[in-house]
Amino acid sequence: xxENRASRGLLVSALGAAVLAVAMFLPWYSVSITPSxxxxxxxxxxxxxxxYGNADLxxxxxxxxxxxxSVAGRPLATxxxxxxxxxxxxxxxxxxxxxxxxxLLELAGVVDIGGGWIAxxxxxxxxxxxxxxxxxxxxxxxxxSLSLGWGSWLALVSAAAIVVGALWEPFMGQSExxxxxxxxxLGL
Length: 188
Fold this sequence. Notes:
The protein is mainly α. It has two domains: 135 residues; 38 residues. It has eight helices and three strands. Strands 2-1-3 form a three-stranded antiparallel beta sheet. Helix 1 runs antiparallel to helix 7, helix 2 runs antiparallel to helix 3 and helix 5 packs antiparallel against helix 6. It is rod-shaped and about 75 Å long. The two termini are 20 Å apart. 25% of the residues are buried.
């Protein structure tokens, strides 16, 4: 019964590691233009049309420029962790690979790594993900804003799943473990 619970935990860790690796390529941030960014774009667009265009182009630029305010605050693009977090994404991918390989080797009975090492890899990945969630890349600007996307939350949950799955058996209380047979293998 204990082996079955440990196997479930290692499966959770392996699944969490695989999802964490995939989450590095999902949208972590959405990029949107701030209201001041839309106003600045409208001004620049009008200035270019006035400098290089004729009256028809200036009229069209005014019509198009007046619509810039409607895109303020709306997500225009998404950025994955792999695109935005060059070095940290490689570290998280490496940690996910270590956790996945360790979980699968432990499940197969090839090596006895122990859940602590797998949990340590998951915890390190979770710290990297939290760091990038709390400190997004790029300089702060009042023209463009970054907001967290669903990929970052999925990465955090999957890194936590690695830790919880690796420590699954120690979380189970002694009452849920099977009692050892005092007669051993006698079969009586």
